[in-house]
Each structure stands twice: as C-alpha cells, then as structure tokens.
Amino acid sequence: MSLVLFDLDDTLIDGDSASLWSEFMLHRGLADQDFVEQEQAMMQKYAAGEMSMDDYMAFTLAPLRGMSQTEIAKQTALFALNEIEPRVYPAAKETVKQAQLAGQRLIVISATADFVVQAAAKRLGIREVIAIQTELVDGHYTGNTVGVLSYQQGKVTRLQDYLGEDYPDLMRTATFYSDSRNDLPLLNEVGCPKVVNPDRTLRQYAEKCGWPILRWQRENG
Questions:
Q1: Bridge partners for 9 per DSSP
Q2: Which domain, by its residues, includes 63?
Q3: Is residue 9 annotated as part of the catalytic site, yes or no?
Q4: Is 166 a catalytic residue?
Q5: Is CB count within 10 Å lower at the N or C end of the chain?
Q6: What residues form DSSP beta bridges with 4?
Q7: Residue 44 CB neighbours (<10 A)
C-alpha cells in the first residue's frame, strides 16, 4: 500500500485553516478583533519561514484554556462545514478520491492544532491525521501543546514516530503535496514530491529539482 501525504493549508484548501479558525473564534465570541490582528501579523512571519511556532501556538490556544473537548468538537464541526468545505479545491477532492479508490493510505500532516485538522480531514474523508498535539487535562484544554510540533523538520520527526520501522520503505514511494517552503524537509524525504500553488521559494526549488508543480483553483476561479 503506497502512502499519500497532504499538507492542509493552501494545499487541500484555499486558505490557512489556523487563520480561518481565528476569524471563526471572533465571530463566535471566543476571541476579539485585537486577537485576530495579532494572529495575522504572526502569519506574515510564517509565510516568510520566520515565525516561532511555539509562540504562535501559545498565543492562539490561550482563548481556549479551560474549554471542554466536547464544546470545541462542536465548534470545529461547524467550522469545518461552513469554512473549510467550501474552500476545498476540486482537484484536491478528486486527488483524494482517486487515491482512496486505488487503495492508497492517506494522511493529512499539518502545522495546525489537532482539533482543527481532525475536523477538516473528516470533511475530506481522510481518517489519519498528524497535527500539533494540544494538551487536555480532565477533558479540558490547557492552552499548551504536547510533544514535537509538526512544523518544518518537526513534520519529518512526527511522521517517523508515527510510521515507526515502516518509515524508510513507505517513504521511498510516498507522495507529498504541499504549497510551502516550510515543508521542504518532508518534501525532500518522499519519493514523489508534488507542489501545489507554491510560494516563490518553493517554486524555484521545485523547478530546480524538476518536481511537478500543480495549479489548483476553486470553482469560482
């Protein structure tokens, strides 16, 4: 069974799920406008590969401190339905469908909080998820993360841990779809890297390496 890996943000969907979640929290009364503006400023650093993911997660998880897993699950299900599903690229849907029909193993691997990525992946029909792990104590979020963050080289580390001794064999024929320079460590690990609507740095790197460059668009263009 071959392995197909997908980044989530700006790869499977048109947009960044973490930023969309921040906007959703604003509309649901879980955050204020100042929170959203600070989150957007931090994401500018992410686009340049300069953001501290530890700082970002500490900031964005703070509003959820003390909230129950049950309540957040309700919110993320609504979020995925209304904010994620309309942004899924048609080509992404078709790629996922064809991979499933071929009996391939699909994993979404993302540098976004697990509760967001799990809800988004569920809408796409993908069951396996590697994301930034959030801490729960007695069924409530603490605002902390757990373990290695699945960001940049951390994606490789988390995937190695997840796949265990099967990692070397699976990676030889694995495909990974991503848009971001931040995913170059993992793109260089797989046998078949594919870049989707890449940022400038990744596009230049992909052209140099001869990697496929895909242009995915939403139905409205």
A1: 13
A2: 3-214
A3: yes
A4: no
A5: C
A6: 106, 175
A7: 10
Residue 48 is assigned to a structural domain of this protein? yes
CATH number at residue 93: 3.40.50.1000
Radius of gyration for the alpha carbons in the chain, expressed in angstroms and rounded = 17
Tens of each residue's pLDDT in the chain, 221 residues: 799 999 999 999 999 999 999 999 999 999 999 999 999 988 888 777 777 899 999 999 999 999 999 999 999 999 999 999 999 999 999 999 999 999 999 999 999 999 999 999 999 999 999 999 999 999 999 999 999 999 999 999 999 999 999 999 999 999 999 999 999 999 999 999 999 999 999 999 999 999 999 999 987 65
Residue 219 lies in a domain: no
Q: How far apart are CA 212 and CA 82, in angstroms?
A: 31
* Chain-centroid distance, C-alpha 178: 9
Considering only CA atoms, which of 4, 3, 6 is closest in space to residue 120? Answer: 6
Asked whether residue 39 is assigned to any structural domain, the reply reads: yes
Q: Which of 9, 10, 16, 114 is catalytic?
A: 9
Rounded distance between C-alpha atoms, residue 179 and residue 15, angstroms: 11
What residues does 88 pair with on adjacent strands? 13
Residue 88 identity: V
Give the active site residue among 7, 16, 114, 179.
7
Number of independent structural domains in the chain: 1
Residue 129: what residue type? V
192: its two tokens:
């078949």
Q: Where are the beta strands (DSSP E) in the chain?
A: 3-6, 105-113, 128-137, 140-146, 175-178, 192-196, 213-214
Residues 6+ apart with CB under 8 A from 140: 66, 67, 68, 69
Q: Quick check: is 189 in a domain?
A: yes
